[in-house]
Amino acid sequence: MSGRHGDAARPGAAVFIGAARDCAPFLPRALERWDALATCFECAHFIVAENDSTDGTKAILGAWAAAGRNRTLLTLDGIEADQIRTVRLAAVRNRLLEEVRSREDLRRASYLVVMDLDYASLLITPARLRRSLALERWDGLFANQLFYYYDVWALRDERRSPDDWVERVSAAPPGWRRAWARLRHLEWRGRPFW
Fold first, then answer.
1. Which letter, b or e, does each residue of 95-112 get, where b requires 16 or more Cβ atoms within 10 Å of its Cβ?
2. 68 in helix, strand or coil?
């Protein structure tokens, strides 16, 4: 999938993907937001992977998927059930990517938009997305925060974040040492490499 686009007014096709589990209170607004963001593209397809929800998430997503032919719902109950949340989320996201790669029509899309289906991406509007799409020579736009990125554990790597920052901070004595540990193991890890 390319990150480039041709028509600046309405770029080509986009595939929106997201994972959902026990997020029924947020889904109506999140799915409305997806519909609004889809207007930025010539065409869009939506794929949601849901697993093991105990609230109304399954029913909401089932009705949503049935209402449009450009909507796919993957039900992945039991996926990595014995694993911690971040490992399960990685498995669900990998399954979403497999779905995109397995379909020729989706593989040819110009954009892949990965979004949260809770409150985390409420500020992403069509106008903001259009501004991002207008940036020249960008191949990706990722989680952007004003300060540190909160999910450094899920994005850990051997050089910058080989372990869980929460354990490092919790092991530090209270007071200034704990504040220093938080700065060192969370906030500095979340800074860009450059």
1. bbeebbeeeeebeebbbb
2. coil
Interval 156-189: pLDDT, tens:
666 656 666 677 788 888 888 888 887 776 666 6
Token pair listed for 13? 């096709």
Torsion angles phi and psi, residue 66, rounded to 5: -70, -20
Taking residues 27-50, report their average pLDDT. Answer: 92
> By the 8 A CB rule, do 48 and 117 touch?
yes
Concatenated DSSP letters for 122-171? TT--HHHHHHHHTSTT--------SS--TTTTTT--TTT--S-HHHHHHH
**d(Cα 108, Cα 99) in Å, to the nearest integer?**
13
DSSP 185: I
Q: Please tell me the number of Cα atoms within 13 Å of 113 on its side-chain side.
A: 26
- What's the predicted TM-score (pTM) here? 0.73
Q: Is residue 67 over pLDDT 70?
A: yes
Structure-token pair, residue 24? 């029924």
